[in-house]
Every structure is written in structure tokens, then in C-alpha cells.
């Protein structure tokens, strides 16, 4: 039995479809009820929905053997897991964005608002730029508009939200997509089952490119 | 759940010590403090670079030791031909990666310092395997050799090397593919990271890859030496086990047991660390992370007794003491209380109070 942590939301629905198309079906997950864990003995999987940013924690701690989560989460929390596959979906990028008239004043620390303090710190450290981080949990775009921060470091998909708020992408940090991750110990003790699963998902992803 | 041999971590530590002692390893005892300088100059060797420091009465900066191996290396004076076999069980002080809080962690391990030959290597790995076996007979020991990666990466600049090493540790093949490296090297790196096999099949694959014949021969000899003790069947070759090249060279290994989701043992050959201390000899060792075993080794019956004796102010204390003594002599676990604690499991109950 492989325990799979799925990220709640649109991405997770798509991921589930890929798993099911690859043969890891689970009828009970489509029923309307309040259950949290869905199991199909026949196909050897047990699915559960968790908050996207928690997927890596469930996998690292071994509560889930495998899971799918965004590269942003992996970069931010550096969990001790195997990253076995780039699912090639949920594509977006981590970027610095600012008001369209922004000009970097290098005579003082740059104020950065973000949900991803580690990624931001790492990025600016490499440039040798002194920064002041404001950790926010959502609606990051408001920070520069209200003058609370100079820039934001956030995920940019189409850039539409930014544009509508008179913000624009300033620099790209790193491309992001969904990754298939596995717990290191599970990967050893359930090697055959997990390798088969990764292989099938990889074939499916490859075939649908 | 598989059978767990130990009731708690103390029992496990005791059994480890006995095992290492039976192979002629002697206990290395050290002070809780160490001069901070030692860690400042070897920061990368430490799991975390946060060290608890304080100044002693002479104004010298001391640290609560975050690691045992460095102290052993510093304090032993190996001669080139001899071999020192040491084990330790010590508390170390580290910052937990996720919570950023200081933690006191029990660490057990052993080091073999001096003329480390193929027998000594096999012995250390056998002891690592036996330690895992005592924890849970369903265990896996991942074996790797640093020379394959270092041969492949010899012409690659340090910065890119680090990125490659971290992708290797993640088994991140799509990450490796995204890097700008020579295709021949890339293909071999991917083939190397994709190996996860029992020794025989893996050795065959390694010979085909033809990266470093010397290392293949070393591994083959090691496996042959491990076979009689029944260790070889628990070994998997896994070249995603990469360690810092400035300390480690040659064989490295990591141990996992079925019931624990993280690595519980890690070790390897660290001649390069010896060189940093200007000690010209070989060294190999491993450490067991007792904190990772917390859940496995917790007292499952810690809230269980055979007999509960209830008493109150009217109870005859002398008679009760005699009863406790009598039950104890029969080998029973007895708990004397005025009130039954919440959640306590017991087989018998004796009420000795007049008001009860």
C-alpha cells in the first residue's frame, strides 16, 4: 500500500486524474462525504488531501510515502526527501515584482514582502544585497501598493493580478512546477511499488506533453 | 509493525555498548565542553552551524559539543601502523533544523582510527549492520563510494559541483538534466544515481559504467567480506548518499529501519578530516541518531503496572510496605497511590484504606 499526499485544490484534482489514468484508481475519493482518507486495496493506494504547503511535511515525516507539491515549497522548506519527477504541470515562476515606477535605492536595505522568506533571503544573499524581510501569509501584492515594502517575492503565473494592481514583474528568480516527491525510507522499503508508480506517472506525463 | 527488540532507548544504548565492547572497542569518554575554535574551523562538518557557546572563567570561548567525532579526532594520537578502536555514547547539543530550538541529543557511535585496512572497513560496516538489526531485523544499509562522483566531477567548477551533489542526494534526474554539463558525464551521473540495487547487480552495472575500476574492486572485496555474517543481503548500493568531500572519501553508508521514516545511522571513511588535523592516517566510523529512534524506542508499557495499591490516612503503613515488598519479590510491578492516575493500566487492585 502506498500512501499518497495530494495537494488540496485545482492542482491536486489534476494530479489525482493523472494518478487514476495511470491505473491507480480510487472510486471512494469521488463520493460526496466528509471522509479524509481514501483507500483502494486493489490498486494499492491510499490518498489523502492536505494543504499544498504541508505535502512536503507529510512526506518527510513518512505519514505519506509519496506526494506531489510545488517546487516553491521544496525550495522554501528544503525537506529531506527524494525529488523523483518533474510533473511538468502547475507551471509558473518565482519572481520579484514591484510597482511599475520602482527604482532600487541601493543606499538602504531593500524591504521585501513575501510568503517565501528563505527563497528571498537566499536570492538576495547571492547578490550581496542587504534586505529587510516582511513575512506575509497572503495578499502579498498590497504591500508595495501601500508602501509597506519596496518589492515582493511571490509566485507569478500569468502576471494578470500584478498588472491590474499597477505592479510588474521585475526579475525572475526560478521557474516552478509540480514535483513528485518520496520519503527516503519509504523509497527503500517500498522500492518496487514506488518505482513502478513513478515509471507509470512519468510515461503518462511524457505522453501528454 | 515488526518486532522491536528494545523496551526503551537506555536498553538500546546498553546493547550497542555491549556489542562494540565484544569486538574489542573501548569506550571514549570526553568532556561536555570543547574549545569553540575546533568547530569554527570545521563548520561544514557539523550538521548545523549553530553551536552553544559561553566564556569560561579565563575568558576562553567554549562550546557545548555539537559533535563527537571532531573531539575524538582531535584528542587521539594514532600511530600510522596501529589501529585505535573506540566507541562513545554522549549527549550532543544541536539546533533542530525546523524549530530552531536547542536540543540535547543522545548519540552513540564508533570510530576506527589508524591503519584502516579492508578488514577494519568490513568490521565497522558489520557492526553498523548488527546495530540496525538489533533495532529492527527489517533494515537496509545503503552503501556508496565517494570516488565515483569525484572522478566524474573532477573537471567541474566547485559551484556547479555543489548543485550537482545536491541534485544527486535528491535523486533529482530532471534537475541534473537541466544543468549545462558534458553529455557523456551527464549520462554517467544519471546512470549512477539511478542505481538502487542489491550488491551483485549493482556491481555488474558499475563495471559496465567504467567510471572508477579501483572503487568497484574495493566494493566487490568489501561485499565478499560481508557475506559470511549475512550482512550483504541487507545492503543496497545507492550513490545518492553523498557527503562533503573535504571530510569524507571512499566508502560512505546510511542505515534505515522499517519502522522509522528517516535515516537512523550514517557513517563513512573520513581520511580527509584526519588530514585537516595534520594526522596522516585513515579513519572510518558511524553514528546512530538516537533522537530519530525516539518513537521506536519509547516505553510502550510505561503506563502499565501489575498491581495498584490504594491507600489513605487510615492505612497501616507497615503492613502496606510488607505487601509491596512481597509483591516485588514475586517480580510484580507495583504502584502505591492514593488515587488511580488517569489512563493507568493494571491487572490487580488492592484497596488498603478504610475509607476507600
Q: Would you kindly provide a brief summary of this structure?
A:
Chain A is of the alpha/beta class and 209 residues long. In chain A, 33% of the residues lie in helices and 32% in strands.
- The number of helices of chain A is 8
What kind of oligomer do you see? heterodimer
Helical content of chain A stands at 25-40%
> Which class of secondary structure composition applies to the elements of chain B?
alpha/beta
Major sheet strand order of chain B: 1-5-6-12-11-10-7-9-8
* Global outline of chain A: elongated
Strand content of chain A: 25-35%
| Order of strands in the sheet with most strands of chain A | 2-3-1-4-11-5
Tell me, what's the shape of chain B?
Answer: elongated
Helix and strand sequence of chain A: EHEEHEHEEEHEHEHEEHH
Q: Helical proportion of chain B?
A: 25-40%
Strand element count of chain A: 11
- Rounded to an integer, what's the Rg of chain B over CA atoms? 25 Å
Pick out the low-confidence regions of chain A: none
Structural category of chain A: alpha/beta
- Tell me the greatest interface: A-B, 19 and 18 residues
Total E-strand runs of chain B: 15
Average of pLDDT of chain A: 93
Rg for CA atoms of chain A: 19 Å
Distance between the termini of chain A: 29 Å
How do the strands and helices of this protein lay out in sequence?
The complex is a heterodimer of chains A (209) and B (356).
Chain A: E1 2-7, H1 10-21, E2 37-40, E3 45-50, H2 55-60, E4 66-70, H3 71-77, E5 81-86, E6 92-99, E7 110-114, H4 117-127, E8 131-135, H5 142-145, E9 151-156, H6 160-164, E10 167-176, E11 178-183, H7 184-189, H8 191-207
Parallel strand pairs in A: 1-3, 1-4, 7-8, 7-9
Antiparallel strand pairs in A: 2-3, 4-11, 5-11, 6-9, 6-10
Chain B: H1 9-22, E1 26-27, E2 33-35, H2 36-40, E3 53-55, E4 61-64, H3 69-75, E5 83-95, E6 102-114, H4 118-135, E7 139-145, H5 146-152, H6 158-169, H7 173-177, H8 183-194, E8 196-197, H9 199-209, H10 213-226, E9 235-238, E10 251-257, E11 265-269, H11 271-276, E12 282-289, E13 304-310, H12 317-329, E14 334-337, E15 345-351
Parallel strand pairs in B: 1-5, 7-9, 13-14, 13-15
Antiparallel strand pairs in B: 2-4, 3-4, 5-6, 6-12, 7-10, 8-9, 10-11, 11-12
Amino acid at each position: 500500500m502506498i500512501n499518497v499526499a495530494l495537494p488540496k485544490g485545482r492542482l491536486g484534482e489534476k494530479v489525482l486524474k493523472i494518478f487514476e489514468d495511470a491505473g491507480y484508481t480510487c472510486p471512494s475519493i469521488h463520493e460526496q462525504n466528509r471522509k479524509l482518507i481514501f483507500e483502494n486495496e486493489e490498486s494499492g493506494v491510499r490518498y489523502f488531501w492536505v494543504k499544498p504547503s504541508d505535502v512536503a511535511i507529510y512526506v518527510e515525516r513518512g505519514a505519506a510515502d509519496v506526494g506531489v507539491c510545488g517546487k516553491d515549497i521544496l525550495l522554501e522548506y528544503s525537506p529531506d526527501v527524494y525529488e523523483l519527477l518533474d510533473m511538468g504541470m502547475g507551471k509558473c515562476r518565482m519572481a520579484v515584482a514591484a510597482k511599475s515606477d520602482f527604482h532600487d535605492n541601493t543606499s538602504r536595505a531593500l524591504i521585501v514582502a513575501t510568503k517565501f522568506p528563505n527563497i528571498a533571503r537566499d536570492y538576495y544573499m547571492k547578490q550581496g544585497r542587504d534586505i529587510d524581510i516582511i513575512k506575509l501569509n497572503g495578499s502579498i501584492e498590497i504591500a508595495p501598493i501601500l508602501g509597506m515594502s519596496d518589492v515582493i517575492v511571490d509566485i507569478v503565473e500569468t502576471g494578470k493580478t500584478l498588472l491590474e494592481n499597477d505592479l510588474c514583474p521585475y526579475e525572475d528568480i526560478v521557474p516552478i512546477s509540480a514535483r513528485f516527491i518520496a520519503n527516503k525510507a519509504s523509497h527503500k522499503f517500498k522500492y518496487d511499488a514506488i518505482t513502478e508508480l513513478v515509471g507509470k506517472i512519468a510515461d503518462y506525463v511524457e505522453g501528454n506533453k | 509493525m515488526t518486532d522491536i527488540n528494545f523496551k526503551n532507548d537506555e536498553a538500546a544504548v546498553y546493547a550497542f555498548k555491549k556489542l562494540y565492547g565484544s569486538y574489542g572497542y573501548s569506550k571514549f569518554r570526553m568532556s561536555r565542553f570543547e574549545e569553540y575554535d575546533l568547530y569554527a574551523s570545521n563548520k561544514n562538518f557539523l550538521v548545523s552551524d549553530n553551536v552553544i557557546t559561553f566564556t569560561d572563567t579565563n575568558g576562553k570561548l567554549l562550546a557545548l559539543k555539537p559533535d563527537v567525532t571532531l573531539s575524538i579526532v582531535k584528542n587521539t594520537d594514532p600511530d600510522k601502523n596501529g589501529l585505535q578502536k573506540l566507541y562513545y555514547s554522549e549527549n550532543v547539543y544541536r539546533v533542530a533544523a525546523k524549530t530552531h530550538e536547542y536540543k540535547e541529543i543522545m548519540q552513540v557511535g564508533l570510530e576506527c582510527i589508524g591503519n584502516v585496512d579492508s578488514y577494519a572497513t568490513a568490521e565497522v560496516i558489520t557492526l553498523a549492520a548488527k546495530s540496525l538489526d538489533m533495532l529492527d531485523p527489517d533494515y537496509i544499509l545503503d552503501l556508496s563510494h565517494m570516488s565515483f562522483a569525484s572522478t566524474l566531477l573532477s573537471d567541474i567548477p566547485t559551484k556547479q559541483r555543489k548543485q550537482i551533489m545536491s541534485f544527486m542526494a535528491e535523486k533529482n534526474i530532471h534537475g541534473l538534466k537541466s544543468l549545462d554539463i558534458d553529455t557523456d558525464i551527464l549520462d554517467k551521473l544519471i546512470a549512477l544515481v539511478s542505481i538502487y540495487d542489491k550488491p551483485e547487480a549493482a556491481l555488474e552495472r558499475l563495471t559496465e559504467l567504467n567510471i572508477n575500476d579501483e572503487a568497484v574492486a574495493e566494493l566487490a572485496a568489501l561485499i565478499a567480506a560481508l557475506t559470511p555474517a549475512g550482512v550483504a543481503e541487507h545492503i543496497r548500493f545507492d550513490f545518492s548518499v553523498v557527503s562533503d568531500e573535504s571530510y569524507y572519501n571512499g566508502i560512505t553508508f546510511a542505515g534505515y529501519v522499517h519502522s522509522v521514516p528517516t535515516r537512523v545511522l550514517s557513517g563513512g571513511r573520513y581520511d580527509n578530516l584526519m588530514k585537516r588535523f595534520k594526522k596522516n592516517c585513515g579513519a572510518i566510523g558511524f553514528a546512530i541518531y538516537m533522537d530519530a529512534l525516539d518513537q521506536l524506542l519509547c516505553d510502550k508499557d510505561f503506563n502499565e503496572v501489575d498491581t495498584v495499591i490504594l491507600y489513605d490516612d487510615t492505612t497501616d503503613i507497615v503492613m502496606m510496605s510488607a505487601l509491596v515488598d512481597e509483591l516485588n519479590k514475586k517480580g510484580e510491578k507495583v504502584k502505591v497511590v492514593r488515587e488511580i492516575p488517569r489512563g493507568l493500566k493494571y491487572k490487580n487492585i488492592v484497596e488498603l484504606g478504610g475509607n476507600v
